[in-house]
Amino acid sequence: MCWVSGEASGALRAAITAYKDEDRRDLVRPLAGWLAPALSVAVASSGDARAALAGRGLVVVPVTGSPRARRRRGDVPLVPLVRSAVRSALWGRVAVAPVLAPTRTTRDQSTLDAGERAANLAGAMEVRSRGRPVVAGSVCLVVDDLMTTGATFTEAARALREAGASEVIAAALGATRRRAEHAQQLASPIS
Predict the structure, then answer these.
(1) CA 119 to CA 112: how far, in whole Å?
(2) Distance, CA of 69 to CA of 17 (rounded, Å)
(3) What is the pLDDT of residues 139-148, one digit of tens each?
C-alpha cells in the first residue's frame, strides 16, 4: 500500500519537475508540506510503524534514484525534501536513511510500460552494507516523489526486506493518473 497526497498532474507535477530537474530547490518547503500528510497517514495506517516511533525508531528511506540522475542533477533532491517533510509530520524516533544503492545499471523508466519497468528494476537495488544494521528488524517507510507503476516501491521493499526490515510501508507526493486509483489518495491535486 502506498499513500500519496494527490494525483501527479498539473501544478503538482510541474512543481516536482521544477524542483528535481530545473534546480528549483526553493520549492522544498511547499513540496515537503504536500508530502507530510502522506507520511503521517502511512505511519498511522500501520500499528507497527506507530509503535516504532515510540520504540526502536522508524527508518524513513528516500529512493535516491539512479547514479545517472544524480550526476545530471548534481545532488539527490529527494533527500532534503524527505527530511523537511519528516520534521513537520513525524514525531518520535525517526531516522532518514538513504540506504538503498543500485546493484546494476537500469534503463530510463520514462519510456517503459508497467511490465518493462518491473523487469528493469527486478534485483536492481540493495541496502548498502553500512545501512544493514539500521534496517535489520526495523519498520521502514519508503518515500519517492511519484508513484507511476509501483515498480520502484516493489523493488525497494524487496531490498529492505532482504536486509531484514520487519515491515515496509510507502508514501509519495503523487501518483500518476493510471495509478491514482490503486494508491490511497489523501487530497486533491494542486490546481
Answers:
(1) 10
(2) 13
(3) 999 999 988 8
**In the chain, beta strands by DSSP E:** 2-7, 58-62, 94-96, 100-102, 125-127, 139-147, 167-175, 184-185
Instruction: Match 520502484 to its residue by C-alpha cell.
Output: 152
For 102-145, the DSSP string reads ESS----GGG--HHHHHHHHTT-EEE-GGGHHHHTT-EEEEEEE
How does pLDDT run across 103-118, given as a tens digit for each residue?
877 777 777 787 887 7
Name the residue among 154, 156, 104, 97 with its Cα closest to residue 131. 97
Nearest to 2 by CA among 158, 148, 163: 148
**Cβ neighbours of residue 9 under 8 Å, at least 6 residues apart?**
174, 176, 177, 189
Grid cell 513525524 in the structure block, residue: 90
Residue entry with cell 507530510: 36
Instruction: Look at the block and give the residue holding cell 520514462.
Output: 110
